[in-house]
Amino acid sequence: MNDEQLTVAEPADESDEQRPVQPEQPRKRKRRGPGPVTLLLLPALVTVTGVAAFLALGGLPNPWPDDSDADPSTSVDIDPSYVPWLRKAASACAVVEPSVLAAQIDQLSGWSDDSDALSGQKGIAGFTDGEWRSWGKDDDGNGHSSPHDPADAIMALGRRDCSLAGKMTELRTEGRINGDLVELTLAAYAAGEDAVTKAGRVPAQAKTYLDEVQALIPRYLALDRDDSGGGAGGAAGALLTAPVSPLTITSPFGSREHPLTGVTKLHTGVDFAAPQGAQVVAARKGRVVFAALTSAYGNRIVIDHGTIQGKGVQTTYSHLSALEAAVGQTVEAGTPIGRVGSTGLSTGPHLHFEVILDGYYTDPRPWVVAGG
User: Fold this and answer.
1) Which domains are present in the chain?
2) DSSP label at 220?
3) Is 0.85 surpassed by the pTM of this model?
4) Distances (CA, A) of 351 to 249, 269, 280, 285, 325
5) pLDDT tens by residue, 297-307
């Protein structure tokens, strides 16, 4: 968008409009030296003029630096629901970090789901139909596998990268190639394994792609930092500690027919199998904002965790047999908050666990479960 140039007119002098301009009459004046007021003000005027010129030439640093100078790795400007999937995908191998996957997607599509008709690439990770048959799965459990599904696409890219990383590690161990494993993996993605093997290093045809991805990685470094909120029980790549152990899912997030009401609607969380009375713990540091008996959820606890990646996050724990936390209480990740039960609309003991992201239910599995 072009900037519009604004011209500000000088305000008219009201006194000039109210009286006609009279021709100036010359008059004789006696020449004299500077008066006492001039002698007092002259040094100050010289000083002010000099300072103004100094500042105009950039003599002092700007005390209010532009926000654009801030460290780009301190925040991540992507859909926050992608973050746990990026971490889960990267946790499949030691070579690939979430920031690398994010930078690849940025380079491939700019996070846009528009398909490239010429290359046949689809979705944010740019998979062709043939590539998708090799790497695509229904990772978010919504009933279909699609490169247009961001969760499926991120996980597929992670599988592909980790497979390439494993092969590059083997080749480097055998002494057939040399170089940084991340760079070799990205080169294999861009140019193919054979090209890397033949060159013995990053081949020339992969340099442009490699440079572009590496230039984007600093933008996503915040994804690589441990943001689990402390406490034990968290899985690698996850943002939340497991609320029960072990994590055995009996009903996933998504549309389903309720076993008691028979109504088909969104199952807003996941059901974890657990015996009656099993310990339930807080999934992350936060403050208890609800702890009471409800008709549908039974005994229910809601914990507010503040913000993660700029979005408000809450977790809920329902059908509890006992409440062991009170409203207003501050808890840490792993703090006991209740016991598994079957209160409310429930067919048996289990924990119904939800993640609410900025007021909307989101699939809890990638937030908690890094593997499997």
Assistant:
1) 80-224 (1.10.530.10), 249-368 (2.70.70.10)
2) G
3) no
4) 10, 10, 8, 19, 16
5) 999 999 999 98
